[in-house]
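Cross-posted from the bioinformatics board.
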Amino acid sequence: MIETIYVEEVIKNHPRTKFILNKFKKSRIILINKYGEIFNKRNQNFRIQKANPSIILAHKKDSFVLPAPEGFGIGSSKNFYFSHMYNCIYDCRYCFLQGMYSSANYVIFVNFEDFDIAIKNTIKKNINSKLTFFSGYDCDSLALENVTGFAKHILSIFRTYTQTEIEFRTKSIQKQPFLSLNPIKNVILAYSLMPELMSNSLDNKAPSISKRISVISELASKGWKIGLRFDPLIHGENWKELYKELLENIYKNISPDCLHSVSFGTLRFPKRMFKDIFKLYPNEPLFTSPLSLNNKMISYDIEIEEEMTSYCKSLSLMYINEDRIFKCSI
Amino acid sequence: MNNFKIKNNSIRWVIALKEEAQVILDHYKLKLVNEKTIYPIYKNAQETHWLIISGIGRNNAAASTAYLYAYSNASKYTSWINIGIAGAGKGNYGDLYLVDKISNYNKKKSTYPSTLPKTTLPKMHLFTSDIPISDYSTYELIDMEGSAFFDIASKLTSKEFICLMKVISDGPKNDIKEITKSKISNLIKVNLFNIIDVVSYYERLSQEEFQIIDKPKLFNEIKSKWHFSTTQSFKLETLLRRIEIFCNRKDIEKIIKNCETSNSVIHVLSSKIKNNLVNWSKF
C-alpha cells in the first residue's frame, strides 16, 4: 500500500501520471515543484523510509542515457544504461542503492518518450558499434512494471533496432509483457540469483529464488533469451555446495539454447558507501563476512573472489560455452 | 547545554499555548523544570518527554525549538512533536489532522513532513501565516508556528522524527473570535487518544534507533582495560558490532584475554572476522 504519492506540478496532467494514479485510488496526492524537494533532501533516514516508501512522479530533464560503468558489459563494444525509476521495491542488503540515495522513496519518471529519443540518438551515433542497453541500473527494471508499463513501452524500439541489445535486469517474477508477446531476439531478461539460503537472509522483500527460477524457466520455454547474473557472489559456510546446487538446478531447468549469457560479480562497496550502509544496518549478518579494505573498495580478499568466480565458472562450463560467460567487475 | 542523559524513547514537544499543552502535561505527568528558563519547559520524571511552551508566531517557534534542543540535550534520534489548534478552510471543527505539506508567505518552496505512523487520521496541507487569517478559502490548515518549527527541527534530526498535528479550531463556520482558553484545552482533550497513539509510534521509533546505535555490549569493558586512541576506538566499535552477531561474550573475552595492547586487541578481532565463515542457515 502506497500511502502518499508526490506529483510534480508540470506533469500532473500527463496521461501517464493519470494512468499511474488510477492504480492508487486510496493514496494521498501531494503536488510538488521538483522531485528533488523530497528526494534529494539531506537529513532523511533511508532505513525508516524503506518501511513505508512513497512514490514520486516526476519529469526527467536530461541524462536519459548514460554510458555504463567500465566492466558492466556482456560482450558488446559499447554499453549504456537508462533508468526510468530511482530506487527499488526490494531491500537487498548488498545493494548499492541504499548507500546512494538519502531517500528510499521511489521516483518514477513519466516522460518515457524522451527516453525513446535519447536511445534512438545513441543508436544512430554508434551505428557501427555493437551496443547493449541496460534497463534497471538505478532500480529493478521490472519490479513495478504493472504500475509503470515502461518495459512494454521501450520494447518497441528494440523490435525496430534488431542489432542493438537491451537487458532488463530484475529479481521480480513479473512475466508481463513478455509472456503475451513473441520473443524478440535482441532482448535479454536477466535475473539476479544466489543460493536460496543466502537470498532468504539478504534479498529482503524479493521473490524467492525458486519462484525466480520457475519464471525463468517459463519465459525461456517461450523463447525469450535469458541472462543469469550471479552478482554478487556471496561467501559463507558451505558456499561451494550451495552454489553447485543452485547452478545445477538452473541449468537443468533451462535449455542452454535460451541462455544468452551468464555473469559473475563479486561483492564490492566503495569505502564511503560501505560506511553509510553499515551505519544504516550495523547488525546485518552480511557484515560479519570477511570483508576488508582492498584497493579503496570493501570486498572479500582477492583469493576468495577468485576462488568463487573460478569455481562457479567451471561448473557453468559444463553446460554452456565460455564465450557466454562474463565477469562483472565494477 | 545541560548534561541530561539522553533517554531511549525520547520525545520533545513544542506547543504554542499553555492551554494547548495542558492535556499533554497532565497525561504524560510533565512538571515545570526547577530552574529559570527563557521559555517554560516541562519534563517527566524519567526525562523521556520534554515540552516547551513557545508562545505565538514563527520566531518563537524557531527559537524555542532550538532552545529545547540545547536545554534538554536532545539527540539526533529524538522525536519532535508540534501540536496545536489551527484554522481551516476544509475539514470539521474539532478534528485532528496530520500535516504532510507546509508552506508560508516568505518561502517559495514548500516542505514535506513525513507522515509515517500507521493511522487512520486524515492529512492536510498547512499554511503558516505571520498574521491571523480570516479568509479561509485558499488554505487547508492555517497556523502561525508550524513552518518555523519544522525548519528548525529538520536541522536537528531527520524528517522521519518530526510530526505536526493540528486540531481545527476555527473556519468559515466557526469564528476565530469565539475561541476561548477552555475551548482550546477541550479541543486537544477530545483528541488525546489519537495523539497518544501517534506519539507512541515516535516513542518506538526513537527507542529502536537508540538500540541500533547503542554501543556494542563489550565496548566499554574492553576500553577500560586497554588504552584506545580515537581511531582505534572507532575500529573497536565497528569490529565488536560485527563480531557480536556471531560470537558470544565468553568467546570474545577468551580471544582477547592474552592481548597486551589495544593494537593486539584490534588485531585478534580483525582476524576473527577475516576467518569467519558466515553460517547463512542461522539468519
